[in-house]
# Entry
Amino acid sequence: MPHIPTGFAEGYLTRLTETVRLLDIAQMDRALDIIKTAWENGNQVICFGNGGSALTAQHYVNDWNKSIYLATGRPFLGRCLAENMGLVMAYANDFCFEDVFVEQLKPIMRQRDVVIGISGSGNSENVLRAVSYANSHGAITLGICGYDGGRLKELAQYHIWAAVNDMQLSEDIHFFFGHIVMQALCSVSE
# Structure
């Protein structure tokens, strides 16, 4: 049986550190402010993505809804459009998979809500359609992407971009952004 090359973990962590150094911290701070403002104004923060990005969206909402409320006493109105598999499959069946997020947005999204689309490649059609809809209906959009940013980087009003051609390193960056938001908002005092 083949063995794992010596130093593999160190190499991965070195690449992750290099990716972190490339982050636009000003963009991350803007995204944090946008989410904070939505929370303070009682707007929803609606997240979605496919595959690992769907789970990142779920993790964001899990942490933000529970931890921010417990720390501050102020509800966080987070939603994840990738967690109700029956609803996702109903829209995929009745419309098409490319519309599973936009169709869910239509009845729930309000102006000034924050819509967060997560796509490692930045080119997931169902994410792009939902972000485009949100842009044209008064929401604030944040795209979280990797690689060259794809179309999401340009379509979303704001973005967090992990500039690395590696899905797992991109997802690492996307994942820890959720913890930054949680800790920042948990530390807000009235």
User: Anything to note?
Assistant: DSSP finds eight helices and five strands in the chain. The first strand starts at residue 45 and ends at 49. Strands lie at 45-49, 78-80, 114-119, 140-145, 158-161. The mean pLDDT is 96.
